[in-house]
Amino acid sequence: MATFSALRINKKGSIEELHIEQFPIPEPQADQVLVKVEFSTINPSDYLSILGRYPSINPPLTPGFEGSGIVVSSGGGEFADSLLNKRVTFRGQGTWAEYCLIPALNATPLLETISLEQGASLHVNPLTVALFIEKINANSSRAFVQNAAASSLGKQFVKWTQRLGIKSINLVRRQEQVDILKNLGAEHVFNTSEEGWKNKAKDLATELGAKVGFDAIGSIETNDLFEIINNDGVVYNYGLLSGKPCEINPGLLMFQGKRLEGLWLSAWFKEVNYEKRLEACMKVQENIDILASEYNQTVGLDGVKDALASYMTSSTNNKVLIKTQLS
Q: Where is the Enoyl reductase (ER) domain (predicted)?
């Protein structure tokens, strides 16, 4: 029986649990496809799933939520069959492997102009940014505030909203991160280690009409966003980079009408139909010139453990591409 290699954890809590195991190559059922995975990536959500902080994801499991590859078999169904032998970008649990079995509706054909390397990172970050833009528009906000702004996602957010004419207020912790964003054309960047930054950011948010904030960190940084955004605004939390609960001054909720909501891309995928997901995926591909990931290193499955350890020490210029085929 033919087998394939996959990274595996048998209990949650530590990246030291990561190891390579062999599994029989599965047969797709109706409306499923089998993807020969060529590339995957490392995202903060992968680290959190290994630590056991994601709901409904329990070991034993193969990590990884996105990737690219070639559909090598179909379990039947019109759409599944239409993907056969095509290059695809896809989402699914278990992409840190040589093969991945997924619902056909989780795959999107790649445009000819997009490489498999770039196709590996077209879901988690770019589609999250697309969801952010949807929230900005839904709140009739002319601007937004984000922390962790020099992360891969943060930089994509800056570039896409620049193209759309939406103003951004960007929070980072080091001067080198200020320089990175300024070089991208970001007009408003604040170093939160400098004295007086918050009052300046708040005044700017009032001037620009920033009613929404996006929080990747949690802890006291959530409250910073609450203090900066306009009254009756909303902060969307989508990350746990601090590993701590969100902290909020209750007075900002009671007296200024501000609110906190959670955003999770997987929940959005369940809420919308395939046509809307496809539209979003194609919009990402059409904007690949500004949404392409900048990979800092490429590793094989046997190098993921070390890459993951260094990845979590910095959120700047740290995007890792995984070449999943061992042979």
A: 13-322
Task: Classify domain 3-121+293-323 at the CATH class level.
Answer: alpha beta
**Whether the predicted pLDDT of 306 surpasses 70:** yes
Closest alpha carbon to 144 in 203, 199, 197, 209: 209
Q: Which tokens sit at 131?
A: 């969801």
Tell me how far apart the alpha carbons of residues 235 and 223 are, in angstroms, rounded to a whole number. Answer: 9
Query: Does domain 125-266 sit in CATH 3.60.21.10?
Result: no
Task: Calculate the CA 45 to chain-centre distance.
Answer: 7
CA distance 285 to 298: 22
Q: Considering the chain, what is the average pLDDT of its residues?
A: 95
Q: Is 3-121+293-323's fold the same as 125-266's?
A: no
For residues 140 and 142, give the distance between their C-alpha atoms in angstroms, rounded to a whole number. Answer: 7
Q: How many C-beta neighbours within 10 Å does residue 284 have?
A: 22
How far is it, in rounded angstroms, from Cα 247 to Cα 27? 47
CB 33 within 8 A of CB 86: no
**What pLDDT score was predicted for residue 57?**
73
Spatial separation of the C-alpha atoms in residues 265 and 91, rounded to whole Å: 11
Answer left, alpha or beta for residue 316, where phi above 0 means left and psi between -120 and 50 means alpha.
Answer: beta
pLDDT above 90 for 133: yes
pLDDT tier at 192 (50, 70, 90 boundaries)? very high
Rounded distance between C-alpha atoms, residue 236 and residue 179, angstroms: 26
What per-residue confidence (pLDDT) applies to 310? 83
CA–CA dist 190, 201 (Å, integer) = 7
Domain residue ranges in the chain: 3-121+293-323, 125-266
